[in-house]
Amino acid sequence: MTSAPKTFRVKSFGCQMNVYDGERMAELLGANGMSAAGEGEDADMVVLNTCHIREKAAEKAYSDVGRLRREDGSKPLIALAGCVAQAEGAEAQKRSPMIDVVVGPQAYHRLPEMVAQAVRGGRPVDTDMPAISKFDAFPKRKRANPSSFLTIQEGCDKFCTYCVVPYTRGAEISRPWGDIVAEAYELVETGAREVVLLGQNVNAWSEDGRGFADLIRELAQIDGLERIRYTTSHPADMTDALIAAHAEVGKLMPYLHLPVQSGSNRILKAMNRSHTVETYLATLAKMREARPDIALSGDFIVGFPGETEEDFTATLNLIDEVGYASAYSFKYSPRPGTPAATMEDQIAPEVMDERLQRLQERINTHQTAFNRATVGKETEVLIERKGRYPGQMIGRTRWLQSVHVETDAVPGDIVSVSLVSAGPNSLAGVIPAKAAA
Predict the structure, then answer these.
(1) I need a surface site. Which of 23, 232, 282, 333 has the fewest CB within 10 A?
(2) Are 88 and 95 in contact (CB under 8 A)?
(3) How distant is the alpha carbon of residue 46 from its chain centre?
C-alpha cells in the first residue's frame, strides 16, 4: 500500500473471547485515527479475527481472505488475527499473498504499528505469546453494550487431548486485579449493566492468594453494575468459595456453564479431563444446594475417538440426570498437533452425525422443559436490543433466557416481565399491568 488506511472493519469468529478481542482491536485502531467503515461500505483495512477450534478452520480463513478481493482486482489491507494466525504464523502469507499482516491473540496490541509497517511495504508477522502485556496498550473503554464482555484470564494448562487452545493461546495467566476492576468501572460508566467475565478457564483466575470468588465479590461493589456472569469454567476450578459466592452475591446470576464433554468415564480419561462423571455430579449437587434456582449449562463432544454406543448412551443418561437449561454440542474434529488427532478408532462421520442429532434432540427436550417451567413467572429482563417488529425488544432473564417483549424500554433498562410462552430457544413476555400503568 502507498497510503495509510482510514477506515477498517473487524470480523470476529468463534468464542466470546474473540468477540472481546475484536472490540479491543477496533478501539485500538480508532484511537490511532481510523474509523469503522459503514454498513455496505468498502473498508480500507479488514481484520479477520479467526477461530481454530473447529476442523478446517485454516481453510475457512483463507477462503474468507479470498472473498475480500474486489471486482476491480483491488483489495483492502488484510490482517489475519486470532488463533488461526497463531497456528499458521508466517506460513499464512505463503499460502495467501493477499495477507499483509499476521498477528496472534497475544500480540494484537501491536496492530497499529504492524499496519504502519505494511503501508511501508513490509509484511509483518507477530505470534509471540508474552505475559498479558497487551491490555496495557488499549485505550479506555468509551462505549459499552448493556451486557459487555471482560477478559480476565487467558490460556490453558489442562491439555485436553482434543483441544488446541494451549498451543494457540498459551499457558494459563491471570490479568491483574486492579486492571480488571478498573476496566469494569469503565464499562459501567459507558453503559454496561451486566459484565460477563471471560477466560479459557475463567474460574482459574488468581492473584496473590486471592481467587475468582474474591474478584466477583469486589466487582459486585460497583454501583450501576447489576449483573455478573462468567464463562467458560472448568470443573477442576469450581471451588467451595465460588459456590458460596453464588449463594451470597446477589449480582452473580443464577446460571452456571460447566462443560463436562462426555458422560463416559472411559472417554473422559481419554480426553484427559480431570473430572469423572461422579465428581462432576457432586459439584453440581453442591451448587444446587447453595443456589436452588441455578440454571445449568454444559458442553458435549460426540464421536471422540473410540466412543462406543455404550459411551454415547452414558452421555444421554447424564443429560437426563442433570436436566440442562441449555447446552452446546459438537462433533469431534481432529486438530493438528493434538494427541487425539492421531488416536486409533476415529469415528465415522455418519455415526457422529447421527449421534449429534440424537444428543441435540435430548438437549432441546430439557431446554424446552426448563423454559416452560418459567412460564407464568414474573422476572427481571435486561433489555439488550431491538427486535424484528416495531415496539419489540429482546432481552435476557437472570437465567440467560432470551425474551421478546413489547415495551418502550431501551437497551440497558431492566424491566419486570411476565413470561407467557416458551420454546426451546426463546420466550415471549408481557409487561405486567401494574408496571405498564
Answers:
(1) 282
(2) yes
(3) 22
- CA–CA distance, 346 with 333 (Å, rounded to integer): 10
Residue with cell 464463562: 231
Output the pTM of the full model: 0.84
Torsion of CA 375, 376, 378, 382, to 10 degrees: 20
Give the rounded distance of the alpha carbon of 295 from its chain centre. Answer: 18
3-state SS assignment for residue 328: strand
**Phi/psi of residue 277, nearest 5 degrees:** -60, -40
pLDDT in tens, 44-61: 999 999 887 666 667 888
Which grid coordinates belong to 49?
479475527
pLDDT of residue 295: 98
3-state helix, strand, coil in the chain (%, to 5): 35, 20, 40
Q: Where are the beta strands (DSSP E) in 314-422?
A: 326-331, 378-386, 392-396, 402-406, 414-422
Rounded Cα distance between 36 and 363, Å, is 39
Q: Cell 474474591, residue? A: 214
Burial of 16 (0-12, 13-18, 19+ CB in 10 A): middle
Query: From residue 276, how far is each of 156, 240, 260, 431 by CA, in Å?
Result: 19, 18, 9, 44
